[in-house]
Amino acid sequence: MPPESENPSRSLTAANVVVFAGKGGVGKTTVTAVVARAAARSGRRVLVIELDGKLALDELLPERDGEHVTVVHLSAPEALEEYLNDHGFRRIAKRLNRTGVIDMVGTAAPGIDDIVVLGKVKQYERSGEYDLIVVDGPAAGHAVSFLMSASGLADAVRGGPIRSQADAVLELLADPERCMAVLVTLPETTPVNETIETAYALEENVGIRLGPVVVNGVDAGTELPEPDDVEAAFAGADLDRPTQDMLRDATAFRRARRAVESEALDRLSERLPLGQIQLPALPVAGLSAEDIDALADDMLSGVDE
Amino acid sequence: MTDPELDAELDSGVETAPPAASLREVVERSDVLVCCGSGGVGKTTSAAVIAMDAARCGRRVVVVTIDPARRLSDALGLESGLSAEPQRIDLDQDVHVEGEMWAMMLDTAATFDGLVRTYADDEEQIERILTNGFYRNMASAMSGTQEYMAAETLHALHHDDRFDLVVVDTPPSRNALDFLDAPGVLSRFLDHRIFKLAMLPTRSGLKVLGSAAQPIFKAIGKVVGSDVLADSLAFFQAFSGMETGFRERADDVVALLRADRTSFVVVASPRRDTITEAVWFARQLADQGVGVAAAIVNRVQPEFGEIEEPARATDGDDVLSSLWANVAELRAVRTAELAALAPLVELTEPAPVQVVPLLGDDVHDLDTLEQLGHHLFPAT
Q1: What is the pTM of this model?
Q2: Mutation choice for B interface testing from A28, A107, A234 by most B CBs within 10 A
């Protein structure tokens, strides 16, 4: 079997549940969509779980003939409310402001809403209806606390239904066959630094299996000539001064950006002994469903090579 | 994209003065400046650059970041990082600076502790609250606490004589109103009916025991366990008597957020999703009668002229053809980005929209911050 980094589609989907984590703006949702599409194209029944009330994935993953992709949305407060209603709150809560009760429970036992969400994920996993479940994880720095909610609650709550829920979730998170986390980042200094920190925090505090890191938006554009070669080419060409300056400036800019990028990627490989999967930057300001299809096909063809 | 209803709302906005002509004018007109937007768009950096420019214009300004912002504190030359106490930044390196720039980071839990100390009756009450598990959760983890404490910190700094301008970066919340509402939400929570239930007098005087017998608390206890429930009820009892102080303070904070000389600046990056969020923020603020004073779009692909590749100019020359290919690729990105940010520009104008180009280098020292400053505050 080839090393993980050469087999992106498979290494990214090597557990029943794959949680994509990374800070806002790194393209986590895009990566989730590409992986879901690629898995569906290789014949798997895929469930995509979107958290935090975002509604982007329906648009990025429209129905395609012969492919099984289902998108569901889970919101922590709603899941908690539903859970409480199922556990004897419905009648009592009617008399009180519902959000007040939910706030109080959420504060008394922080992470309880995350547990309820993870409990639902576990339920889907156990249903056997899907070959792969991908979770577009919570935004910002919430990934660690989201995944840690189970161990935190298990410490605080000694009995009752929430405790057994937490135990079941811990079991899911600790089983490398059933669950793994994939960190998504950009080839830039700050996102890479945060990814390294998050990886260590997850390792230490959650003990969840980490898949390869996905680096989104890597510059895979035209190769740039060396400065000396540029001057030589200018000497032999009939280009006016402003044109030469423009071409030179644009090249210098691109070269500088690529230097920042490769420095960030180098540090990522140095500090994190995980595989790296790079997705190319596309000249767009936001991806469409067709872009997702194309990236998924790229990813799958990478497997055949 | 026009929305007559929204336009009317924006037109009927609070101030009667014409919109500021530039970001610098927005800053001049403000005592408090709030940078909001989704995560990863450069809010913290923008806040720092704004503060730096204001100091150069003679203001005594403090910038508050939400997280440790390691790279920013390095860039500012703070060797031990940002702390919860404002630290003076040395800007006086090449040219004399009239004003002062200070920087600090929000400490949510310590700020909350400070409020408790202010409104508690005695040491014993302070002790009982600060050591309570429910309180610790609330001070560190409850949703909205960070927003509330950011607003509270802003209020405290606004009344601190050392400063005449406070620039704050907001938590990367999906909802602009979280920030405006948080003080009210929390004081309502503390003043809630549940709380009153927990305080029902009981015969034995053992309030915790008495309250725990209420059906609602029995149900909560069944879910979270009796220890956690007892802790929660003990908190509400310890907190008794402080609700009014907290509520009045929250009202002051909300009033400051809505004051004429408090400005909201929406920060975005030129991607469709963050622009959509920024537009959503701006609309929410407008709905609340709080206009967006300016918008900043960071990291837009720079422009490299409009010269077109001459026909057959690169015949057989690989070097020249890759130079032209590079320009074409960069222009394609810029075109896509400008199209993506158009809705935000349309919604914000006539208030200023400042587009900041992606630089060749990341921010890592005062010089790179300064470069951003030239783009955020272009010389007229």
Answers
A1: 0.88
A2: A107
